[in-house]
Amino acid sequence: MNLSFFDQFSSPSLLGIPLILISMTFPALLLPSLDNRWITNRLSTLQLWFINLVTKQLMMPLDKKGHKWALILTSLMIFLLLINLLGLLPYTFTPTTQLSMNLALAFPLWLATLLTGLRNQPSASLGHLLP
Fold first, then answer.
1. What are the residues facing 13 on neighbouring strands?
2. Phi-psi region of 48 (alpha: psi -120 to 50; beta: other; left: phi over 0)
3. Could you tell me which of 45, 31, 7, 24 has the C-alpha nearest to residue 95?
């Protein structure tokens, strides 16, 4: 078997399907499904408890005006947790090790907070940008 130095970065595949796609779609099975009842089984109860815990921890230091960010911050936190847990599986690659994914997640959130601050409190926001 002839390997190069860069073969360690190639995505492993099974029957021509990259395993990273399978491992990234697997956590979607753990998310609650739509049903006419709120709590259907123990797994959905555990998921709702965990989402509530994460939301409480994220929103505790913020005031009431900051709670409008609860949905995006909670979903981002759970997404990052699931993606990083995928790195524990054998033969998978954690996508958050790439700078491109981190920048794609961080830059829009940073820009949104900057523009929101400039819109609501322009003098204080410009004061933070000074050296």
1. 18
2. alpha
3. 24
